[in-house]
Design brief:
single chain, about 375 residues, alpha/beta, 6-stranded mixed sheet
Length: about 375
């Protein structure tokens, strides 16, 4: 689909740069065609400067990166010519308050998204997006690693929402729909999901979902139960039947990265069976057993981020805990079931070399044997 950005100021210019960096072609238009051409030239061959008339004629998706009053004028001027198009509203109607801050130029309980929705011509659809972050953060947070920043959007029309979600992804953000356009005020300035509102920053998906749909006590209990089952099942015998029960704690595409005497990542069912063998090679069941220490469970919606302590206890001589480490997990809920999608294990520097070294020396041999 062809995307046009009308308005080449701070938001329009930064968004254009993000989209081009993501491989998207964009048409750039504004009252100052020379300014649009200068921006397009700076962005390379994926950006083309056009007139506003040409943008309306050629584009399937039009981002109205202009002030609210200018957006109203565009809707009135082009009317039926916008039919069949997806219109994107990133507007935040604010002005200096005279004390170094800003104030809304519409009512405190009014939303520019809803105001524009009432003016959208028949046959066109409106999606609220790209206005949750400041221009600076729109650039700085694009393609953030290791976890991308969220790009919130609100849409009444599911198809239009999916179109804009793909643009959000191309711009380097993780799209999260907050609901219909009646929720637009939440992603406008001072809203609870805006950078200059309750969030105060760009957030990742887990942080966003924690605000949108916090984990319940039942969610937390079910996730903790998975932690306990992990330790119980890792202490089963090393048979394939026991390995299959262990695998049931993970989604099929899950990964498990271990940082101990060496670093290794195990992926998918076959990889996790190797991980199961690995655990039994280092921690023979006749010598040790595992337990759960402290844990923290955060997140919301269908994603949870869990940090928790693993403990290895020596069975003989009442020696108690001989080794500890930390798991960093990401859980996903699918069809009402929580399982691990990503796990990272970091061992503490208290590895008792005298106890473990004989088993560490035999790791590769035991991998093959099991």
């Amino acid at each position: 689909m062809t995307t046009a950005i009308i308005g080449t100021g701070n938001i329009g210019g930064r968004l254009a740069a993000d989209l081009v960096a993501g491989g998207a072609e964009v048409l750039l238009a504004g009252r100052d065609l020379a300014g649009a051409k200068s921006l397009a030239d700076s962005l390379g061959t994926l950006a083309t400067a056009v007139t506003v008339d040409e943008a309306v004629e050629q584009a399937d998706v039009i981002v109205l990166a202009v002030w609210l009053d200018a957006a109203k004028e565009l809707l009135a001027r082009y009317g039926d010519r916008l039919s069949g198009k997806v219109l994107v509203d990133p507007s935040n109607p604010i002005a200096p308050d005279g004390d170094g801050g800003f104030v809304k130029t519409i009512g405190a309980e009014e939303s520019s998204g809803l105001l524009l929705a009432a003016l959208v011509p028949a046959g066109a659809t409106l999606v609220k997006a790209f206005g949750t972050l400041s221009a600076g953060t729109l650039s700085a947070a694009s393609r953030r690693t290791p976890e991308p920043a969220v790009g919130f959007y609100a849409a009444d029309d599911a198809t239009a929402g999916e179109v804009v979600a793909r643009l959000i992804t191309a711009a380097g953000f993780d799209p999260v729909r907050i609901g219909g356009l009646d929720q637009s005020i939440r992603i406008e300035v001072f809203g609870d999901l805006h950078e200059f509102g309750a969030l105060g920053k760009a957030v990742n998906r887990a942080e966003a979902l924690a605000v949108l749909s916090p984990l319940t006590a039942v969610d937390r209990f079910e996730i903790f139960e998975q932690l306990a089952l992990h330790q119980r099942r890792i202490d089963n015998d090393a048979s394939r039947a026991s390995a299959d029960k262990y695998l049931d704690l993970y989604w099929p595409e899950a990964t498990f990265t271990v940082h101990d005497l060496r670093t290794r990542t195990f992926t998918g069912p076959e990889g996790l069976k190797s991980l199961y063998d690995y655990a039994h090679s280092v921690f023979p069941l006749e010598k040790w057993f595992h337990d759960v220490g402290w844990f923290e469970i955060d997140g919301g919606g269908d994603t949870a981020v869990v940090s928790w302590r693993w403990l290895v206890n020596w069975k003989e001589g009442n020696q108690g805990v001989v080794s500890t480490g930390t798991y960093q997990d990401r859980f996903e809920r699918r069809a009402g079931v929580w399982k691990v999608i990503e796990r990272v294990s970091d061992i503490d520097p208290n590895w008792p070399a005298a106890l473990f070294q004989p088993y560490v020396d035999r790791q590769d041999e035991l991998f093959i044997a099991s």
